[in-house]
Amino acid sequence: MKKVPEQQEFDITGIPAIADRATAVPDEQIPDAVIKRLPRYFRCLRELYNRDIMKISSAELSEITGLSAPQLRQDLKYFGGLGQRGYGYNVKKLYTCISEYLGVGKKYTAVIIGAGNLGKALSNSRLLEQRGVWIKGVFDISDKVIGKTVADNTVRHVKEVKEFCKNNRVDIAVLCIPANESTELCDIISGTGVRGVWNFSPCELDEKSVGVPVVNICAADSLMILMREMSEIKDKRQ
Predict the structure, then answer these.
(1) Is the model's pLDDT at 235 over the cut of 70?
(2) What is the pLDDT of residues 36-85, one digit of tens each?
(3) Is the pLDDT reported for residue 24 higher than 50?
(4) Residue 39 to residue 45: CA distance in whole angstroms
(5) Where do the domains of the chain lie?
């Protein structure tokens, strides 16, 4: 089975009803290493579901995900008996279980803090919506962008973010600001009542300092890893 590109027209409301699951979301603690691979399974299963492919073998799913079949079977065992010898996996049920476990479709809300190039790009893409996250507001400190419209949201001053989040029960803060100090970022988030932080700023945050789960994203790190791998291959060829 050939790999297929991610479908951009996916509608989050198309996720199968949770009631259709064959098994409940696992109560057993899933290892962090497995959790990090679940979004990959989610993407592949979503594409299969959108193409009306309702069953797939571990070998076929292995080819699509790029993970070995033994690794795949080991990962998916946490979701109960959704794989059967001679039949494979029920795509719809497995997809629904993983979607629920990852929180997709729970209709989280978010604000984007920082209306620069990255903030605008995230606002205008369907990335968040496709994962069940709706953008409620966009904030910045620059007079050049405050008052302008970004993806149907009027950019507000960042000083309004705390009151806005409280009044609108915002779940996630997406940080796209070039802050130089972690204390500055913590001050912005403190008092908003958000339940999680997706941090694209150059300054790393942790759950202890912020008080809620944090994921730090640094594209430069992955670029340097790529460059190192390229350099290693070049060294071997010389």
Answers:
(1) no
(2) 999 999 999 999 999 999 999 989 999 999 999 999 989 998 887 665 66
(3) no
(4) 10
(5) 12-102, 108-220
Asked whether 206 and 223 are in contact (CB, 8 A), the reply is no
> Three-class SS string for the chain?
CCCCCCCCCCCHHHCCCHHHCCCCCCCCCCCHHHHHHHHHHHHHHHHHHHCCCCEECHHHHHHHHCCCHHHHHHHHHHHCCCEECCCEEEHHHHHHHHHHHHCCCCCEEEEEECCCHHHHHHHHCCHHHHCCEEEEEEEECCCCCCCCEECCEECEEHHHHHHHHHHHCCCEEEECCCCCCHHHHHHHHCCCCCCEEEECCCCCCCHHHHCCCEEECCHHHHHHHHHHHHHHHHHHHC
Question: How is domain 108-220 classified at the architecture level of CATH?
Answer: 3-Layer(aba) Sandwich (3.40)
**Domain over 12-102 is classified CATH 3.30.1490.100:** no
